[in-house]
Design a protein that fits this description.
By secondary structure, the chain is of the alpha/beta class. The chain folds into four domains: 131 residues, Methylthiotransferase, N-terminal domain (Rossmann fold, 3-Layer(aba) Sandwich); 118 residues, Transcription Regulator spoIIAA (2-Layer Sandwich); 92 residues, Transcription Regulator spoIIAA (2-Layer Sandwich); 64 residues, Nucleic acid-binding proteins (OB fold (Dihydrolipoamide Acetyltransferase, E2P)). A six-stranded mixed sheet has the order 1-2-3-4-5-6, with helices on both faces. It has a six-stranded parallel sheet with strand order 7-10-11-12-13-14. Strands 15-16-17-19-18 form a five-stranded mixed β-barrel. It is globular and about 65 Å long. Its main location: cytoplasm. Its EC number is 2.8.4.4. GO terms for molecular function: 4 iron, 4 sulfur cluster binding; aspartic acid methylthiotransferase activity; catalytic activity, acting on a tRNA; metal ion binding; protein methylthiotransferase activity. One of its GO terms (cellular component) is cytosol.
Length: 454
Amino acid sequence: MTRYVGGANLQKYKVGIISLGCDKNRIDSEIMLGSINKDFELTNKAEEADIIIINTCGFIEKAKQESINTILEMAEFKNKGNCKLLMATGCLTQRYGEELAELIPEIDVMLGVNDYIQINKFINEFIKNNKRIINCNYSDENINEGERIITTNKMSAYVRIAEGCDNYCTYCIIPKIRGKYRSRSMESILKEVNELVSQGVKEIILIAQDTTRYGMDLYGAKHLHSLIKDISKIPGVEWIRLLYCYPEELYDELIQEIASNKKVCNYLDLPIQHISNDVLKLMGRKTSKESILNIINTLRKNIPDIKLRTSIIVGFPGETEDNFKELKEFIEEIKFDNLGVFRYSKEEGSAAALMKDQIEENIKKQREKELMKLQKEIVIKLNQENVGKIYDVLIESENEEFYIGRNQGMAPDIDGMIFIDKKNPMNVGDIIPIKIMESTEYDLIGVVYYESSK
């Protein structure tokens, strides 16, 4: 879970935001900060804030509980701090607005996922009338856009290219929270990228619930490859990274663009969730084991050095020991560079919640443990193969001993890092050729590489 506090001051009110959940939620929080910051003074201390906003996540049980705990924790500042207005926004409030309002009366203003650009209006309305506001209405027509305050490392920024989802996987309630799939216009996206680059951003990370379907609703065909091509022409863009690409939606023009465009990271996040055809069918996934294997082979054939990340759900209703064994053998065979494992969460309102053969929690935990142990062994071996190789590395930070950065095969916050000896001075934001000298479980250690050292 991403968590940070930022904010600002209107009429001498200080405002702080805590953002929970995914990168799409982070963008919403950055849009809120951008709107608030026109009038507010920034603060990153909750105890100083007159107004505290929690942008919640409501995707799975663990995330819901964290969101509720955070709201309750921040509510304490109404008693012992400066807080005069407690606001909750995001997926949890969109999903459980009335119940949450009754459960936590300390919440003064509650918004869903739609009205972030109007947040100043709601703050002023509460200050003026001192009357509780519950506004969790929803419209499929809206996509949150606007000026943002970047909360990442300033070298990288996420750009949402579409909102919502039409897939209706049986375990997921995102379509009910975020609505139907709708792409942003290319003009709007390119304008945002230009603004981000003017702030010093070098890596553009494209996200959506499914990035590969971009353009279908607006232009009648998939146009992610066209969007990438146009972004790559913007001066200052060094890397373009693609996340959340459904394997069944990958297409030839996109693969060719990744393979031929030097600014596109040879890295794909392919959320496959499972490999057993029986389980994929139960999940409502629009793919098959054969199709997944075919697209992985196609990617590795056309882009030999591509790094692949995926996410897996274990303990889905009806997942048998044979299904799990098949999944484990698949992971051992494919050797993903990075892999996240999640225990199935029974979410009310989802089709899977009504299925028979729900799996006991102890079995889910054991299967998760087995896959994580296997993946750890795979990553250690893959990391060892990096020793002696040379990568362009984006320097993001430094400590007393090392400069710290990533290569194109590492996404921020979720993958490993590269630690570089400080013998050679460099600046945060530089992209430097680095020779890998050592590997650890998940990270790499390197030195600056000079052509003369060949």
